[in-house]
Design goal:
Elements lengths: L2 E5 L4 H12 L3 E6 L5 H8 L4 E6 L5 H11 L1 E6 L7 H6 L1 H22 L4 E7 L12 E2 L11 H20 L3 E6 L1 E3 L14 H10 L3 E4 L9 E3 H13 L7 E4 L9 H11 L4 E4 L18 E2 L2 H5 L8 H15 L2
Parallel strand pairs: 1-2, 1-4, 2-3, 4-5, 5-7, 6-13, 7-11, 8-10, 9-12
Helix pairs in contact: 1-8, 3-5, 5-6, 9-11
This protein binds nicotinamide-adenine-dinucleotide.
């Protein structure tokens, strides 16, 4: 078995995938612009797999080629990306395109030229559904129109389509994961992801024993996926010998909004000093949601055909996240 190369691997999702691969004894190469967080270096050192960290930029083709050559890479996740909010997409559209689209093309070309890659896992996103998320109760890979609105969503749709096309032309075997909104261990500000999850903000407030003020009830419907479940799903897509689909949603398929009060209560029971409430009309919340409009949930049948479904209930996910945060963030 060769190594798995993850570009952007020191980011939130990459670290979860790296951890899951290392836990099963694999060789992992993290290729990205930021260093490995200290806590991750410490946690990963206890795992049976082998880890190499290359602090490089995906826009450096020579560095990509060298990474493939040095590590006998046979699977690749070109996950480096800029998750731009409105200000950044307006100020730096070229950078978003360069990293999110050209960076993937460069990684695929290096993978092709290395001659040893047997699976590419393309990082698409639920953002590809765009406006459809507000008009379709269930976001289905085959039937729901993709009308991405944000530049980020547009680049993710481009990655999916051009990634599958180039893989076909270049003799690579690719699967695109439409990753749902994730939260959990290793989530932090990478400097290029402009909106972190409200669960990250709640955890910070809980660890500091502060009060969290959520937007007024009821919260809009939103489908979350726990990072550890997501990592398990990505491994299923990486491992599938005969993928039943080439484009797959990875999400819980559940509206988490009705669970949020119970999740906050569980945090309050665990972290002394943490309190929470909904904002009064006109009051500014301290916890920002990713979207103020209710969204459809993601269809899960294709992921199930790969043998994956989110394992954690919202309550179990928050309990696991709280244990992780207490161990690693205190
Ligand atoms: N987090 C989510 O909820 C979510 C949802 C859907 C899709 N995704 C996808 O998952 C992937 C990882 O996202 P994330 O949430 O971990 O974001 P993140 O910002 O935590 O991680 C991205 C990583 O890419 C690195 N990077 C950025 N530009 C780079 C460059 N030019 N060269 C090398 N490295 C560079 C960053 O330093 C960072 O480590 C992305 O492709 C993203 O589109 C994430």
């Amino acid at each position: 078995m060769g190594a798995v190369l993850i570009t952007g691997g020191a980011g939130f999702v990459g670290l979860n995938v790296a951890e899951a691969l290392l836990a099963r004894g694999e060789e992992v190469v993290i290729f990205g612009r930021e260093p490995l967080p200290e806590a991750a270096a410490c946690a990963f050192a206890a795992l049976p797999g082998r880890l190499a960290v290359l602090e490089r930029d995906v826009r450096e083709e020579a560095a990509l080629r060298a990474a493939f050559a040095a590590h006998a890479v046979d699977r690749v996740l070109p996950f480096a990306a800029i998750t731009a909010g409105p200000e950044r997409e307006s100020a730096e559209p070229e950078a978003v395109l360069d990293v999110n689209v050209k960076g993937v093309v460069a990684t695929l070309r290096a993978a092709r030229d290395s001659g040893g890659v047997r699976r590419v896992l393309l990082p698409s996103s639920s953002a590809v559904y765009g406006e459809s998320a507000y008009t379709h109760p269930v976001l289905d890979e085959a039937r729901t129109p993709c009308v991405p609105a944000s530049l980020y969503g547009v680049t993710k749709y481009a990655v999916e389509r051009l990634g599958l096309r180039l893989a076909a032309l270049w003799g690579l075997d690719a699967v695109a994961a439409r990753i749902g909104a994730a939260f959990g261990p290793w989530e932090r500000d990478s400097g290029v992801r402009d909106t972190l999850s409200p669960f990250h903000a709640l955890m910070q407030a809980a660890l500091m024993g502060r009060q969290a003020v959520l937007p007024p009830a009821p919260l809009p419907s939103y489908d979350w996926v726990y990072a550890r479940d997501l990592a398990a799903g990505l491994l299923k897509l990486l491992d599938a010998e005969l993928p039943p689909h080439r484009v797959v949603n990875l999400a819980s398929g559940l509206d988490w909004a009705p669970h949020v009060p119970a999740l906050c209560e569980a945090l309050a029971a665990r972290f002394p000093g943490f309190r929470w409430r909904h904002a009064a009309p006109g009051e500014a919340p301290t916890i920002r949601l990713n979207d103020s409009r209710p969204r459809g949930v993601l269809a899960t049948a294709r992921a199930a055909a790969f043998g994956w479904q989110a394992r954690h209930t919202p309550e179990a996910a928050m309990a696991d996240y709280a244990s992780w945060a207490a161990a690693w963030l205190r």
